Amino acid sequence: MHFDGVDKIKKLALASGFSIFTLPTTIDQTTILPKAVHIAPLKDENSIKIEQVKEVNELTSSKQTNEFFLVVEQSELLTTSAANSLLKQLEEPGNKLHYIFLTTNPNLILQTIKSRAFCYVLNTPPFNPESIDIKMRAKVKELIQAQPKDLKDIIDPYTKDKKTGRLKAIEFTRCASQLCLESYYKTGNKIFLDKAQKAAAACQAITENGNIRIQFIANML
User: Fold this and answer.
1) Distance (Å, rounded) from C-alpha 215 to C-alpha 217?
2) Which partner for 210 in 7, 111, 126, 215 could form a disulfide, CB atoms 3.0-4.6 Å apart?
3) Are 2 and 8 contacting, i.e. CB atoms less than 8 angstroms apart?
4) Sign of CA dihedral 153, 175, 3, 25
5) Domain end call among 102, 122, 142
6) Is residue 17 domain-shared with residue 84, that is, in the same domain?
């Protein structure tokens, strides 16, 4: 799912125990949540080793009474043993623990880690909500309020359009994801974040040539 601005990372991370943020190489990852605990490759090293992770695991082993943020810079450089050590902690993170993985190449992160995470990609350029027309906004509002039984009727116009239906379905789910995320920023209501995640998953599945109706309904339920 796409997000706008590194200033949103803290709020998005607060909504889950574990998040992955894909950033361009131009962003200095050390400046993101500088007061948090950071793990990064040591000087003259090209990997994050298990010994570094074990030190941090000791900090998170006791129950946290305040919000605790652990930022893993260049997380694609975690060794397999270091990633697996973190994975054990991620299986049952405490309510106050928030792991933030920063990366420029999410494809190098273990799938077992990605499958447990909220995954975000920085929008470049930033998303402009005003670019969405009134009809699309009305369609997204319909989706937000929809019951499971309504999903088929919402997606049917796109499945019946054999020429441009897929492109329109992709645009609809992309806009739905972004507008729901904007609503989450404004309200803090996790229902909008959940809808944004689901719409992003539907968009990805349809983009990868999945059956429009099946993928839409499966991901939005």
Assistant:
1) 6
2) 215
3) no
4) positive
5) 122
6) yes
Tens digits of residue pLDDT in 159-218 = 999 899 999 999 999 999 999 999 999 999 999 999 999 999 999 999 998 899 999 999
Q: How many CA atoms lie within 13 A of 64 on its CB side?
A: 17
Supply the pLDDT for residue 207: 95
**Which residue range forms the structural domain that includes residue 117?**
2-122
> Could you tell me if 176 and 91 lie in one domain?
no
Backbone angles phi, psi at 25, to 5 degrees: -70, -15
Cα–Cα distance between 183 and 176 in angstroms, integer? 11
**What's the N-to-C CA distance of the chain in angstroms?**
17
Domain boundary among 122, 140, 160: 122
Compute the Cα dihedral for 201, 130, 189, 11 and give only its sign. Answer: positive
